[in-house]
Specification:
alpha+beta; 32% strand; five-stranded mixed beta sheet; elongated
Length: 228
């Protein structure tokens, strides 16, 4: 036997919980709300037309209702006569259009791949894409946010391995410049290029980028190989 839930007003007031998760019902409810808004906007337009018509009739000698005082005709901002009506109509129309417009999908902002040798910090990842055969290129930044000269360093990349077992040898990875000075308060972009041979199978090859002399710094590398 089922148990009815309610607030004492009878089963007719039970909350239809199933409709909360029904996307079709939600869309119908949204359409109904928008329809009500458009009807309200239409009512404002009709009122505008009636007011305009009353003004024309009065100018032709047709009797019109007793005019309102300035205080009665003014809105909160001091606008009088037809101005509050026009302002209200435009505000409502703008809200309806903004509510009905589809929202653009939000895309996360990409973080540039970078090492900070003084702070022992690494951020981002190296993403490369190439049609085989070809050369994939990317840039990684080397920062020294401290005041101490960190000397010189070199970048090293591991072999890149795909899930199907394919390998892009580390010997096909090059850096420019190969030997990088890292003085205090400096930043330097380092170009990475990977030569992909014709026999490399398509897929995503992954590896690790390291910084010589800084064992705690590393970044993931992903190379996507496609065929023409």
């Amino acid at each position: 036997m089922g148990v009815a839930s309610g607030n004492g007003d009878g089963p007719g007031n039970d909350l239809p919980w199933a409709s909360v998760f029904d996307s079709a019902a939600n869309m119908r409810a949204l359409s109904a709300i928008q329809s009500e808004g458009f009807r309200a906007a239409s009512a404002l337009v009709d009122r505008f037309i009636r007011l305009a018509s009353s003004g024309l009739q009065a100018s032709e000698g047709v009797s019109s209702p007793e005019p309102l005082s300035r205080a009665e005709r003014a809105d909160l901002f001091g606008a009088t006569d037809i101005e509050p009506l026009i302002r209200s109509w435009w505000v409502m129309l703008g809200q309806l259009l903004l509510g009905a417009a589809p929202r653009a999908a939000e895309t996360p902002t990409a973080v540039p791949a970078a090492f900070d040798v003084s702070a022992a910090d690494a951020r981002g990842r190296i993403m490369l894409d190439v049609v085989a055969p070809g050369v994939a290129t990317a840039t990684v930044w080397l920062h020294n946010t401290g005041t101490t000269d960190m000397g010189r360093t070199r970048l090293r990349c591991s072999d890149l391995i795909a899930e199907h077992g394919g390998v892009v040898d580390a010997g096909h990875v090059a850096f420019d410049p190969a030997d990088i000075p890292v003085p205090g308060r400096s930043s330097r972009g380092v170009d990475i290029s990977i030569n992909v041979e014709p026999d490399v199978r398509p897929g995503v090859y992954r590896g690790i980028l390291l910084t010589a002399g800084h064992p705690d710094l590393w970044l993931p590398v992903a190379l996507t190989v496609r065929l023409e």
